[in-house]
Write a structure and sequence with these properties.
The protein folds into 2 domains: 199 residues, Rhomboid-like fold (Up-down Bundle), CATH 1.20.1540.10; 56 residues, no CATH class. It is 64% helix and 2% strand. The chain is built from 15 helices and 2 strands. A hairpin with a 2-residue loop joins strand 1 and strand 2. The longest helix has 30 residues. The chain is elongated. Its main location: membrane. One of its GO terms (biological process) is cellular response to unfolded protein.
């Protein structure tokens, strides 16, 4: 497989137009990140297509397992990239809103690797059944296998709808199979086994055990991360015993509190006297005290009472009852 010329071309320009028409703000993060990754690697590939494609000979016999990761995110030409990414744009938006960003990212990562494994198994089976070793040398790249798997998921979560395949309205239940045959007839150079592998992986998720296995692994992964995080916190606490946390018992302030910020540097008796004077200034000289007449000036009496409170500790309880 020869590497084709890269650069800004018609297919790439049309792809940018489709993305801008939808609007970057309307594309969820995982979908947008997947588009960006494929575009970046199309413009700056990690190697020639012959070094990133996947086949039985290159990946299985020669143990080049890293091709499982690289082959889905490399494309043969700009139109290959365009059709795959436009399909990813719409499928990704619908599925990410349905499943959430984290789970869709997990699905794409698992499907990308698993589809490569199923693809090699199909090519190996064809080579053995037909007695033709050339099937083991067929090298494939592209995101279309993952897209077929996502199409199965999209049809599963949106039952009862119809898809247009070559102008024909096909039920979502059979749309993947009709599209598989139609694409192979219209464009014989496409990887039939790669597309079929995507459908099989999608069915393994929707009607098989793959979804349950992925959930179990996902929870194990989260538990492992949480365990290691708690271990790191424990080690940090042991390494820095002087550091305390606000939400733990025994927390102490590292610096002495400055209560002058709240008291203004006044003693307890001075605070009481200041409070009485402020109260009198706010209410005015003619404030009524109990049943005393309005013309009675209560300031001397209250000041005298505050002095008594400063001399007798028993009067402190009166302050808590807002008597002054």
């Amino acid at each position: 497989m020869q590497r084709r010329q890269r650069g800004i071309s018609a297919g790439l320009l049309l792809l940018f137009y489709e993305i801008s028409r939808v609007g970057f703000q309307n594309i969820p993060p995982v979908t947008l990140g997947t588009l960006a990754l494929n575009i970046i690697l199309f413009l700056n590939p990690l190697g020639p297509l012959s070094e990133v494609c996947i086949s039985v000979n290159e990946s299985f016999y020669r143990k080049n397992w890293w091709r499982l990761l690289l082959s889905p995110i490399h494309h043969a030409d700009d139109w290959h990239l365009y059709f795959n990414m436009v399909s990813m744009l719409w499928k990704g938006i619908m599925l990410e809103r349905k499943l959430g960003s984290a789970w869709l990212a997990y699905i794409i990562a698992v499907f990308s690797v698993l589809i490569g494994v199923v693809y090699m198994a199909l090519e190996y089976a064809l080579a053995e059944l037909l007695g033709d070793p050339t099937y083991k040398m067929i090298c494939a790249v592209g995101f279309s296998g993952v897209l077929f798997a996502l199409k199965v998921l999209n049809n599963h979560y949106n039952p009862g709808r119809f898809s247009s395949v070559l102008g024909m309205q096909i039920s979502n239940k059979y749309a993947c199979w009709v599209e598989l045959v139609a694409i192979h007839l219209v464009s014989p150079g496409t990887s039939f086994a790669g597309h079929l592998a995507g459908i099989l992986v999608g069915l393994m998720y929707t009607v098989g055990p793959l979804k349950r296995i992925m959930k179990a692994c996902y929870f194990v992964l989260l538990s492992t991360v949480a365990f290691h995080f708690s271990g790191i916190s424990y080690l940090l606490e042991k390494a820095f015993p002087s550091c305390k946390y606000y939400d733990r018992p025994g927390y102490e302030y590292s610096t002495r509190r400055n209560y002058d910020v709240y008291t203004g540097g006044l003693t307890e008796e001075e605070q009481l006297e200041r409070a009485v004077l402020n109260s009198l200034n706010e209410r005015g000289r003619n404030h009524m005290l109990g049943r005393v007449g309005r013309c009675f000036d209560a300031r001397p009496l209250l000041l005298y009472a505050s002095k008594l409170c400063s001399l007798h500790r028993s009067c402190r309880n009166l302050k808590s009852k807002n008597m002054f």
